[in-house]
Amino acid sequence: MSNLERAPTATVSASCRPVAAEPVHEVLTASAVDLGEGTPVRRLLPKRQRATIGAWCFVDHFGPQDIAGLAGMRVPPHPHIGLQTVTWLLEGEVLHRDSLGTRQLIQPGQLNLMTAGRGIAHSEESPATHPPILHGVQLWTALPQRSAGVDAAFQHLPEPPAVQTAGIRATVLVGELLGARSPARTYSDLVGADLATEAATNEDLPLRPDFEHGAVVVSGEAAVDGVVLRPGSLLYLGTGRHHLAVRTAGPARVLLLGGEPFGEPLILWWNFVAHTAEEIAQARADWKAGTRFGEVHGFDGPPLPAPPLPPGRLKPR
């Protein structure tokens, strides 16, 4: 998916808070943005306070939205560098197309993982005939500098691994949790999991203490390490945790994100993740010139134009 802001500011990781070297409770409130065609999004990362959780650098939560009789999601072709996109639906359908020639319909319970590497373009839209409700998350992970120039790639997982505990069904999107490992290919040590409860639950989940973690409630309500969360906020948990307490009074969905602290400077601007301002400026110029990113075929409409760079230089939020 895309950052559709017409005058996006840059997030510079060096200007954000450092990795917490101990367990903390830091609540980040979502910003409201429009993904196009009236699709509202809660943007939870990056924020002024924090750019990354491990390599996770972008968290958009959209819906649930009633799109019966409407076009639904419509994100024109746009470019990416230096990242992987992770798309996870709770309800609805999204059609992905990219400049590798991929055409993939994603449905709830399936995972789309796109590696931008040096450069890729893609579009996402609701298919012409689609379910009435659209609800899901779009995530980005930053590629470390050693992997930023890898070839673009796309991976579709029709059934990511899941583990059932006494009260939680944990679907492992990337990385490993509770002994289940996702086959999704990543370039740093990460975990991403959808924790679903159907009734009241009170459980402690094991965590890697060398990871930093965050939690987002995407449906219902949950107390995560004692902090009550509803859709619209992200709880940053820091590092040094061996277990995480999850408490719910009924049905809920909690997205757990974590990873080894990224440890490299990053600049996030528009749809680009890079290590220097020069890389971003060159990527914008290449997109404007129609080079490097290839073409997305089949989308009914023009590609997304690149907004102007901030005057002078890329500056932090």
**Tell me about the biggest sheet?**
8 strands, antiparallel
Helical proportion? under 10%
Individual helix count? 1
Q: State the total count of DSSP E strands.
A: 26
N to C succession of SSEs: EEEEEEEEEEEEEEEEEEEEEEEEEEH
**Average pLDDT taken over every residue:** 94
Q: Structural class of the helix and strand makeup? A: mainly beta
Range of strand content = over 45%
Question: Which residue ranges are poorly predicted, with pLDDT under 50 across at least 5 consecutive positions?
Answer: none
Please state the CA-atom Rg, rounded to the nearest Å.
18 Å
The end-to-end distance, rounded to whole angstroms, is 21 Å
The shape is globular
How would you describe the overall organization of this protein?
This protein is mainly beta. Helix content is 4%, strand content 47%. It has one helix at residues 277-289; strands at residues 11-12, 23-29, 31-34, 40-45, 56-66, 74-80, 83-91, 94-98, 103-106, 111-115, 120-125, 133-142, 153-157, 162-164, 169-177, 180-181, 190-197, 201-206, 212-219, 222-224, 227-229, 233-238, 243-248, 252-259, 267-269, 272-274. Strands 2, 14, 15, 16, 17, 19, 22 and 24 form an eight-stranded antiparallel β-sheet that branches. It has a seven-stranded antiparallel β-sheet with strand order 3-4-5-12-7-10-13, with no helix packed on it. Strands 6-11-8-9 form a four-stranded antiparallel β-sheet, with no helix packed on it. A hairpin with a 4-residue loop joins strand 8 and strand 9 (103-106). The longest helix has 13 residues, at 277-289.
